[in-house]
Specification:
Blueprint (H helix, E strand, L loop, with lengths): L2 H5 L2 E6 L5 H11 L4 E7 L3 E6 L3 H11 L6 E4 L2 E4 L4 H13 L8 E8 L9 H16 L2 E2 L6 E8 L2 E7 L25 H11 L9 E5 L5 H8 L3 E5 L14 E4 L13 E6 L5 H9 L5 E12 L5 H12 L3 E7 L7 E8 L1
Parallel strand pairs: 6-7, 6-8, 10-11, 10-13, 11-12, 13-14
Antiparallel strand pairs: 1-3, 1-4, 2-3, 5-9, 8-9, 14-16, 15-16
Helix pairs in contact: 4-5, 6-7, 8-9
The structure holds S-adenosylmethionine.
Organism: Paenibacillus gyeongsangnamensis
Pfam families: FtsJ (PF01728)
GO molecular function, one term: methyltransferase activity
Length: about 350
């Protein structure tokens, strides 16, 4: 065992989608031999965890483990009782920052969050503004929202303020609490589009690199619209109606049918996406029957409904049902997923 493992101890805050923190905790527990201590900060979605491992080791293990339910983590380097006085809070932060002063020109994203209860009268925008000003005036650092060199995380919960600094990648997501936001466009067909946009980022895909997609359970057409925007030929299958604005696209083929009622040429598609709100086993059976149409090396992005919260079992069953043709690359509960999660597969 290395020194870090023997001597290290690190404290973190973990965030999951509401109602899935137990799964996130289970994922963390499985990654470490040393016991992990958990403490709720907001039931079902936000918790503090302490691991008897160095900070570097925890980041390495968790990133390598690619957890599905742990959406975000942030280190806790210091914590204090949260008073009502903004100036006193900023003075406390200033003392913390002096221990490792930010560099001039360093791009720092200050991310402030608070839980609904127990965060006193703290105003998140006021505190963020005050810390941004402090960083600029005292250290000539540059406050930014994105593409930061460092994230400075502040969380007010249960009457305490938690402070930590990290490189953006160490937080799993560089959005505060992993709550990635996309701008709603005028005429946007469905909120479901955000799921596919988020999946593209989360799985490091670039849909513009694909040629031809099969969208199963496509209506009203949020996913189809994104794939058309990325320049693909899209075959949309759904007995329900697609939004009329899509029907003008010359790159769209719309089959207003049940997915077990359609047939294609072998290897016709290099991308298969499926967002049916169905029982996971029925969905897997249906997708399996269409896998001949996905070319070897092709990608599949599939939303899976989590029935009765048996999340790990559900992932296992879908993965087994779709094997050996599809090989699971990553499972992730996206911020835009609700009682579901998204799987990314490659066709062998
Ligand atoms: C959650 S919606 C899909 C939303 C879509 N991804 C979007 O971005 O607008 C689920 C769709 O699956 C369709 N669906 C359910 N069973 C199906 C089946 N057997 N074959 C094809 N589509 C099906 C439903 O009609 C419904 O439109």
């Amino acid at each position: 065992m290395d020194q870090g493992a023997v001597m290290g101890i690190s404290v973190w805050i973990g965030t999951s989608n509401r109602g899935f923190a137990q799964q996130a905790q289970e994922e963390i527990r499985r990654l470490f031999e040393a016991p992990v201590r958990f403490e709720w900060l907001a039931a079902g979605e936000l918790f503090k965890f302490t691991v008897e491992e160095s900070r570097e080791r925890v980041v390495e293990r968790i990133l390598a483990g690619a957890p599905a339910f742990l959406r975000h983590m942030q280190p806790v380097e210091a914590e204090a009782d949260l008073g009502e006085d903004l100036q006193a809070t900023v003075a406390w932060l200033q003392r913390q920052l002096k221990e490792r002063p930010p560099g001039a020109g360093q791009r720092i994203a200050v991310q402030v969050r608070k839980t609904e209860e127990g965060a006193s009268g703290l105003s998140v925008p006021e505190l963020k503004h005050a810390v941004d000003e402090l960083l600029e005036q005292e250290w000539q650092a540059v406050p930014v929202a994105r593409e930061a060199d460092e994230v400075l995380s502040l969380l007010a919960a249960g009457g305490r303020l938690y402070f930590g600094r990290s490189a953006p990648h160490e937080n799993i997501s560089d959005w505060p609490g992993g709550a990635i936001r996309f701008r709603r466009e005028e005429g946007q067909i469905s909120r479901a589009k955000f799921k596919l946009l988020e999946a593209e980022q989360a799985f490091g895909l670039d849909f513009a690199q694909y040629r031809s997609a099969l969208d199963i359970g496509a209506a009203p057409g949020g996913w189809t619209s994104l794939l058309l925007e990325r320049g693909l030929q899209v075959t949309a299958v759904d007995p329900a109606k697609l939004d009329a604005t899509l029907l003008r696209s010359p790159r769209l083929r719309y089959l207003q049918k049940n997915a077990d009622d359609v047939a294609f040429a072998a290897g016709e598609f290099d991308l298969l996406v499926c967002d049916m709100s169905w029982s996971h086993r029925q969905m897997a059976k249906l997708v399996k029957g269409l896998l001949y149409a996905l070319q070897p090396g092709g990608t599949a992005v599939i939303t899976v409904k989590l029935m009765h919260k048996k999340a790990f079992q559900t992932i296992r069953e879908v993965t087994q049902d779709l094997a050996p043709e599809l090989s699971l690359q990553q499972a992730k509960q996206l911020f835009h997923n609700r009682e579901e999660l998204t799987l990314f597969f490659l066709k062998l």
